[in-house]
Amino acid sequence: MKLVPPDQGMLYYIIENKRPDLAKKIKQSGVIETVVVGLGGQGTRHAELMQQYGTTITAGIAPGRGGTRLLETIPVYDTISECLKEHPNIAVASVWRHYSTAKDATIEAIEADIPMVILISEGIPLKDVRDILVAARKHKTVLIGGNTPGVIFPPEGIKAGMLPDVFYPEEVSPEEFGPKGVTIISRSGAILYHLSDALASVGIAQNAVLGVGGDGAIGSTFRDLVPLAMAYKNTDLVVMAGEIGGCQEELLADDIKKNPKKYPKPLVALISGAHAPEGKTMGHAGAIVSPGQVYGTFQSKKQALENVGVPVVNSQYDLIIEVQKRLQKKIYFDVENYYRKMKTIWDAPSKKPGWGTLITKVMPNNLLISGYPLQDLVEQKGFLETVYLLVKGEFPDKKTAEEMRKIALEGAKKSVPKVSRSKKEDISKTLVKYFVLDEELAQYPEEGTNGAVKKTVFAIGRTARYLSGILGTEKALEKLSGNEPFSHVIYRAVTGNTTVNEQYSRMIEAMIVACVDHGVTPPSAQATLIAASTRAPYEVAVAQGVGAITDVHGGAGAKAAQFFTDCIQTSKKENIDVAQATREIMRKYIEEGKRIEGLGHRLHTKDPRRDVLWNFSSQTGIAGQHVQLSKKVSTIFEQVRGMSLPINVDGVIGAIVADMGLNPAMAKAFFIYGRIAGLSAHYFEEIASQPRMRQINFSEAVYKGKGPRSIQ
Amino acid sequence: MKLYEYEAKKVFEKMGIPIPKQYGVIRSLKELDTLKLGFPLMLKSMVLVGGRGKAGGIKKANNVEETRKIAAVLFKLKIKGFPVDCILLEEAVEEIGACYVGITMDPATFNNVVIVSASGGVDIEQVAQNNPEAIMRKEIPDNSKELSKTVAHDLALSLNQSLKGKNETTKTLAEIIAKVYATYQRFDARLCEINPLIMTSKGAVAADAKLVLDDNALFRQVELLDLLGITEKRHDVAERTKNELRAQSAGFPYIDLLSQPVTKDQKKLYVGLIPGGAGYGIFSIDEVSTIGNRYFHDRVIPVNFMDSGGGPPQNRVAEMFHLLMDYPVVDLIVTSRFGGISSCDIFIRGMVQAVKERYETRKRMVPVFGRMVGTDLPSARTFLEKAKAENPEALQNVTIYVGNQRIMADVIREGIQKAFETKGWKI
Known about the structure:
The complex is a heterodimer of chains A (712) and B (427). Chain A is of the alpha/beta class. Chain A has four domains: 32-147, 3-Layer(aba) Sandwich (Rossmann fold); 148-277 and 293-351, Succinyl-CoA synthetase domains (Rossmann fold); 358-548 and 668-698, Citrate Synthase, domain 1 (Orthogonal Bundle); 556-659, CATH 1.10.230.10. In chain A, 49% of the residues lie in helices and 13% in strands. Chain A has a seven-stranded mixed beta sheet, with helices on both faces. In chain A, strands 9-8-13-12-14-15-16 form a seven-stranded mixed beta sheet, sandwiched between helices. In chain A, strand 18 (360-363) and strand 19 form a beta hairpin. In chain A, helix 17 runs antiparallel to helix 24. The mean pLDDT of chain A is 93. In chain B, helix 7 (242-250) runs antiparallel to helix 9 (314-326). Chain B is an alpha+beta fold and 427 residues long. In chain B, the strands form five sheets. In chain B, strands 7, 8, 9, 10, 11 and 12 form a six-stranded antiparallel beta sheet that branches. In chain B, strands 15-14-17-18-19 form a five-stranded parallel beta sheet, sandwiched between helices. Chain B is 37% helix and 23% strand. Chain B has twelve helices and 19 strands. Chains A and B meet through helix 6, helix 7, helix 10, helix 12 and helix 13 of A and strand 7, strand 8, helix 3, strand 10 and helix 8 of B.
């Protein structure tokens, strides 16, 4: 169904009345922006429901949680003033804070001149509510509540609060909703469903529902809201649902008497509590606070309203009769069709649970990092730019890129702690030791703007230094000039050479970039995410992920390099054709029950990283016999084994490493090096967008980031 | 939460509001011997309702024997249903005039309002109705912590003029008014009142003290509660019925509409309600009454208010049904579940749990008639259908409409009609 545009609806009308400047901006953007204040369990849950209904939630506010994200995508700020600096067009705030802190948060929203503030929090001390009211009067805020179920505008599909989505708007055609209908203004939330039911059963639409709130002192009362609703052109009639206690209904009656022009449209009052037990009385002041007046009982309300010509009803049947009478039996939609629709909504299977990541979209044969195909990054972007993209979702501008390079260089320059290492120790284990022992990294700040990406880049710089520690190439890193590209730093660390072979340097960087990330499901990412969920320090969480990169996961490159080297050497030694040698070695492996590494992938039949690395190795002139073999190995395997397994990224990297004459262990080192970037991105995303110690169901992860895009 | 007079007076004393000399509070006659008394004194029954004087709960005594005699009588007294558990003994002050000072929140503007009147005493409500101009009121729109000196002075001046007091009394009155206001604000009161404020030859004295605290603010009034030795929120409305106590311990709001114990009128149908949130809790009472009146010769009586909204857990839902089925007068239970945020499924499971359990243990069963719509409807419906197929006898008198085609008023009407037919009553 097509909704009514926001600038045609009642919410816009209310905003326009208070802040014409803001209304203009809404007209331009076509969007009414809202903010959710207070992100406890209730605020967070309802933020999701509001968003699903169609409300635009621009930001969330939670002190101490600035820089994190709500529902994985919505930025969170510590204060409203910080938020408004970034999002000046916010028009509605819903406040969900605990009653003990609701006052300050609400007053902040009011003083920031947000025109409409919906105070959901209940049980706020009355003294605090009075302070809120003083501020709201001063700033002429439309304050709804406290203890309100909120407001909902069905024609526009916008709600702020916890009202369910049952209220049904006018239908102007089978495909389009219209703005007209009855506006319900109610003191109670629970009664609203039954009013909506009653009206809908005879085809009467609700164009807005406003809950005034049930607390002892509230922002807007019937006297404020009934005239407001009537002034909106598309409201045909107002139903006010009052109840015993207080004097709002009597005051409304009094105002109707004094200012009849403010009430140009029909009004039907439903008052509940005619048969309720006697209310409590409270001292003498309660009785003498308004000398000479009686109020608060069913009779006093009924009499007051009937005296000014407002019909008062006390049952669904009478409500239907009185409203229909005043609307000349107008019908806003087909009732049978409405029932069918409601049934469809309620019968719909419940939504699959899911949580979001914005980093990498993993599909068969396709990997998108923040929307960019990974192979394009391998081809066109350097490691540091890719790191930046992973953590921030965008590429750095020139100045920032330079800043990042300097941070990485700084990381590579500083000496690392001495780490003892046994000869056969897995490189991932050694890297774990470095990560955990490195105080330079631990102390590096991660707060403030860009704190996460800076820390990651620094860690990337440190990792070059760790590698040099492992390979005994530290000397090559000692005399780095300030202008050195970071790819040269990696080259120096890997080879120990100070004269850089540009082709080799680019090839190494390309292999590293190819390994940066594969979404949240690889075991290494899971390990880091679980650590992040307990808010472990950055270097510990990344070390957990690195430690999970074993021969089983991510470590196949080293073995593949060894395999290709064996095949080529055997063919030379025995002077037989490479394919023949390969078949023999494969048979031997199979006899010994060994796996042939570098083949097969749980998802990709044509690994997106394969061709780009092959091409790169040809362009740089690196590709030799090993790469040649890697292109045929799948076919050879099928000849031996009778089943087809595609080569994977480990296999390709293994072959290239072999052609480069590097230590086979480097294939694994490159994988880990690249993946540290991805692990860092997942770490910071978890911290920013998820509650602590959540139960992480990895198969429920959903990519919610940017759609496919290409590098210009 | 209402405070007892002696508690309020402790607070007044702390805030520098003059009160009569306090001899002590006794909970038994024995405790009289431990007190050092002066005469004449006042014996005041400590109950949390108004009209104690008229009910004979406040007496003057001139010596120990008289005190003992009166105390013995008071301890046996019930004031508006409240037993007298303790008695305050305080100095009786001689009176040359009485006035009223009170602070509360205006229900129309939500501003604090200071109310003073030279016609203090028990009949102040009468004065307000018959002679409104005898009441002076001043709204304080800025919710300030303290009352401005000017406002206090102006009110005191007019009050003193009406009292025809000496010039210097204005200052005393202004101070008291300001202190009452400060007390009201500092302790998050909904009401702080002196009635009467007695004028004596030595000055003004708060002969009575009323302080009602804002329940919502109790969490931050720890020091006050410590001072008074109050450890938990006091239930101060009326003595609770058995059903109300049971509901309270199960964690849902419930009020009996009929005074207990109930003598059942055999010609009438008694309807128990499990209606949803508080608003519909009140409205459904009206609906049942109206429908009974309109279509069933006024032979239908709703028996309770209940707030069953907010997504109660399954066991609590079961307890709601148990409570009404254990309540012997109930002939029919009407229920409505709107799963907005809460789940229909949990609700229906709770209901089935209760009904099955009662059937299996041969407990009293009451027909249930109702409707459910909203969240988790498909699973709720499947569960109910399955339960009915598996336990046809246990659930034979449970009728739950699914979806909102039938509005609740129709469901209530049909339920009552069925109940009438079962009883063989004419409609």
